[in-house]
Amino acid sequence: MRLAMAEAALAQILTWNVPSIAAALGERIDAFINALRAHGLENWLPPGEVAHFCALQPPQCLDTQWAQTLAAALRNEDVVFTLRHGRLRFAPHLHVSIAQMQALATRIASLAATHEPCA
Fold first, then answer.
1. pLDDT exceeds 90 at position 113
2. What's the total number of domains in the chain?
3. Taking the model in full, what pTM does it have?
């Protein structure tokens, strides 16, 4: 069963081709980052960007539990990500739309707005 799944996945990658996959994932991450910036969350973005994932780090002035609180709220909404070292790491798949990435940024911003702002 696993070999059949691997064969199908490899065939799909060959059909789509790696540069097209990278471009599509880059569009999703760019849309996410731009939406976060539009919501005033520029300071949540680490320096440097990569095309296939984005790690958000709430500002240091927020208590250490806040990233876990945000993570719990997003998990309750079936958002898939990892939480590592206080950073929320998002790596969209091709089936995730640009609109969904923008909506995720809006949701994160709305959750952030419920917390005491940094001085």
1. no
2. 1
3. 0.82
